[in-house]
Design a protein that fits this description.
The chain is an alpha+beta fold and about 450 residues long. It contains 16 helices and twelve strands. Among the domains are: about 70 residues, MutS, DNA mismatch repair protein, domain I (3-Layer(aba) Sandwich), CATH 3.40.1170.60; about 55 residues, DNA polymerase, domain 1; about 110 residues, Dna Ligase, domain 1 (2-Layer Sandwich), CATH 3.30.1490. Helices cover about 40% and strands about 20% of the residues. The strands form three sheets. It has a five-stranded mixed beta sheet. A four-stranded antiparallel beta sheet has the order 9-12-10-11. Helix 7 links the parallel strand 7 and strand 8. The longest helix is centred in the C-terminal third of the chain and has 24 residues. The chain is globular, with a radius of gyration of 29 Å.
């Protein structure tokens, strides 16, 4: 039995979800999807990066991932709206819930797209097949229309016998469309497309292929694979040749393999140089750190190593990473480490810029994962604990709520004097430190910690 694979992709997801929320709050508002608009950056200062755009904005040349100032230069009337990830997550969950009603196996690949293995589900759509359309198209129409009618946003559905072609099909004309791309349709529907439209072929790779005279996907399909590998590298050349011929055997995975690391990368519309580094790199690292942190927080893991990745204008890949004292998944701390690593990689005396390189891709990663529900505290965390907090009671020991001590009557006699508050705080801090030292020495030996000179 031939596989039946759908790729369902929300049209301009972040922009669409922001538009739907705005229309719910104000039915008389302008639909952001019908005008040049975009999500991303700081709406007030008009700085940052475009993370989503409307179709009209795309027709004006606005691109995802480019600086807001550059987008505004292309489209001065561009309407900017801030990101709203709480809303995006809610709509994503509702979107996936509908897909799960129809497909036995679903692979969610991002917040706004998923593969569905619809093989063997014809009986679920028997009533629709009577309309005259083949089963896959009937099923896709029902899914697409239910999402639009119940959630208020549109999707594209690509249909094929493998994931690659289903993905390619969903990228055809938008929005709210269904497209097929079966292997026998590849010569007519896919080969005439520009090589840059091939899924997995980035703009940098496309430019290199142009220099070989490969302008279309069909050109790549007919090109000698060995020559492609000699020019692009063994893995990349093999992938481009197979993909251009519509070949893919990747299964739709219903369950995720346990991640060994988390990373997010972004290919830039314009290279970063030493001159524009200060303006562009911080925002990109912030965005990528937020994405990595959000995924780790979702999966309840922390990273013990943070890394940065870059690809230069000469297509060389460089990385830097740093082990942390303790694992974490906070976006701000990931960003701080990534910024320090990136400065060393790019701006150091022997950095990329000193070698005459530019940066065309940036990535942030977290590895050395810890999924323990308990977070190890350092000596400094213990000492930084609120000083007014009462000491933790040992097993079986009773604790009482602190009571306000009544002022002594001038004639009242006392057997002992109450220690000054500052002295009590010092004693409590020392008690905590001694307890931590005992734990460390008990685990690693008496010589694990020694007093330093001075």
């Amino acid at each position: 039995m031939d596989r039946c694979i759908f790729h369902v992709d929300v049209n301009s997801a972040f922009l669409s979800w922001s538009a739907v929320k705005k229309l719910k709050e104000d039915p008389g508002a302008t639909d952001l999807r019908t005008i040049p608009s975009a999500v991303g950056g700081d709406v007030k200062t008009r700085h940052g990066i475009i993370t989503a755009k409307s179709i009209p904005a795309g027709k004006m040349g606005v691109k995802t991932g480019e600086p807001v100032v550059k987008a505004l230069a292309k489209c001065p009337d561009l309407v900017l709206v801030p990101s709203d990830f709480e809303t995006y997550r809610a709509y994503s969950r509702a979107f996936i819930a509908i897909l799960k009603k129809y497909a036995p196996v679903i692979e969610q690949v991002s917040i706004d797209e998923a593969y569905l293995d619809m093989t063997g589900t014809e009986d679920r759509f028997r009533d629709l097949i009577l309309s005259g359309d083949p089963f896959p198209v009937c099923a896709a129409r029902r899914i697409k229309d239910e999402i639009r009618d119940t959630l208020g946003f549109t999707v594209n559905v690509g249909i094929s016998s493998n994931k690659l072609l289903a993905k390619m099909a969903s990228d055809f004309e938008k929005p709210d469309r269904i497209h097929t791309l079966y292997p026998e349709e590849v010569p007519a529907k896919m080969w005439p497309l520009p090589i840059r439209d091939l899924h997995g072929c980035g703009s940098a790779t496309a430019k290199r292929l142009y220099s070989l005279g490969i302008l279309t996907i069909g050109d790549a399909a007919a090109f000698d694979e060995a020559l492609l590998q000699s020019f692009l590298g063994e893995s990349a050349g093999h992938y481009i040749h197979r993909s251009a011929n519509g070949i893919s055997t990747s299964p739709v995975r219903g369950t995720r393999d346990k991640a060994k690391s988390y990373s997010n990368e972004r290919t830039l519309s314009e290279d970063i140089t030493e001159e524009n580094y200060g303006e562009r790199m911080p925002e990109i690292l912030r965005y990528l750190s937020d994405k990595v942190a959000g995924r780790m927080q979702r999966d309840h893991v922390r990273a013990g190593t943070i890394g940065v990745i870059v690809k230069t204008g000469t297509f060389r890949r460089h990385t830097r990473q740093e082990g942390l004292e303790r694992a974490l998944n906070r976006a701000d701390l990931i960003e701080q480490t990534a910024a320090r690593l990136m400065e060393d990689l790019a701006l150091g005396e022997e950095g990329l810029f000193a070698q005459g390189e530019t940066i065309r891709l940036v990535g942030v990663s977290g590895s050395g994962l810890d999924d323990s529900p308990y977070e190890q505290l350092s000596l400094f965390d213990l000492l930084a604990a609120p000083e007014e907090a009462p000491a933790e009671a040992s097993a079986g020991e009773k604790t009482e709520e602190p009571r306000e001590k009544a002022p002594l009557d001038p004639g009242e006699e006392t057997g002992t004097l109450e220690a000054p508050a500052s002295e009590k705080k010092r004693d409590e801090k020392k008690r905590r430190l001694d307890a931590m030292l005992d734990q460390v020495r008990g685990r690693y030996g008496d010589r694990a910690l020694r007093k330093g000179p001075g």
